[in-house]
Amino acid sequence: GGRPYALTTSTGPKRQPEFSPDGKKLSYIEAGRVYVAELNGSNPDPVLPTHAEMAMAMGSAESRGAIPLYSAYSWAPDSEGLAGISSPDRVTDSLKYLPKPDGEVLVVTPSVPMMHINGIAWAAKEAVLAATVQLGRDALVLAFYPRQKRLEMLVRAKNITFGAPAVAPDGSVVILPVGTATDKQEAGLVRIDVGTKRSGMLCIGEFEKPVFSPDGNRILAAQLDPKTRKHAVVTIDPESGKVTRLTHGADCFDAVFSPMSAR
Which pLDDT tens digit goes with each residue over 7-32? Predict the structure, then answer.
């Protein structure tokens, strides 16, 4: 029942508003730049692209002075680091990691022809980042470990589409939507064991934006009903794949768990 009030004063459109994991910072995207501000919206600081990225772009003959735009970002669990999806040429994507606001950006995946990053997500309690990537006809699932600056390929498949991933709080499991109703591949949620790199279909259906509960015992997602073409919020058991519907009738999106609740 509260009354909304503005946190920002600039007139440009804002996207992806978030709080840092520790709840002490506000962040958002405006005009392709990632801003970090105080909770009341004051002192917004454009942290991505960094000053070094902008200087390099302006001085590069290949980029022709085009500043890289960021389409998405994700906070690291330490509330200092940020991972971001950058497009230096407006055609291909690159995954980058900034360990702290005034740090030096690390290029996790360089921009290569036909590369598109579908989504990124951190584990809530471990420094593990998952990314789903389309590279031509190939679909990749990558895991990045910033402390070791190590990138691992978890899955590579052909003629398939991977959606945005979710990572278990301890970083042991990655869940991601695969396929759509129009694909030859049956749509569902794929479960990947990060340690063994074994993968398999967890449950069947068209799912969007899965998220793990803080304790890792449940997954929350939006599921598309093939008959009504409406979305319902569902929970999914990460071990058995059992799906429990929570909403009925309405078209629901972007379900989230409370960070203060284990349920």
Answer: 888 888 999 999 999 999 999 999 99
Can you point out the beta strands (E) in 78-226?
82-87, 94-98, 106-109, 115-122, 129-135, 138-145, 150-158, 166-167, 173-178, 188-193, 199-204, 206-212, 219-224
Most confident of 51-65, 106-120, 142-156, 171-185: 142-156
Q: Which domain holds residue 3?
A: 1-113
pLDDT mean across residues, the chain: 90
Q: Is residue 134 part of a domain?
A: no
CA dist 202 and 177 (Å) reads 10
What Å distances lie between residue 195 and 171, 176, 191, CA to CA?
9, 16, 12
Rounded CA separation 132/118 (Å): 5
- CA 100 – CA 80 distance, rounded (Å): 5
**Domains: count for the chain:** 1
Asked if residue 3 belongs to a domain, the reply is yes
User: In whole angstroms, what is the distance from residue 34 CA to residue 82 CA?
Assistant: 10
Measure the CA–CA gap between 117 and 5, rounded to whole angstroms. Answer: 34
> Does 129 reside within a domain?
no
CATH code of the domain in which 59 resides: 2.120.10.30
Burial 58-84 (b: 16+ CB within 10 A, else e): eeeeeeeeebbbbebbbbbbeebbbbb
Q: What are phi and psi of 113, to 5 degrees?
A: -55, 140
Please state, in angstroms and rounded to a whole number, the distance separating the CA atoms of residues 263 and 15. Answer: 28
Q: Which helix (H) or strand (E) holds 232?
A: strand 231-236
Q: Which two tokens stand for residue 161?
A: 């589409």
Amino acid at position 252, single letter: C
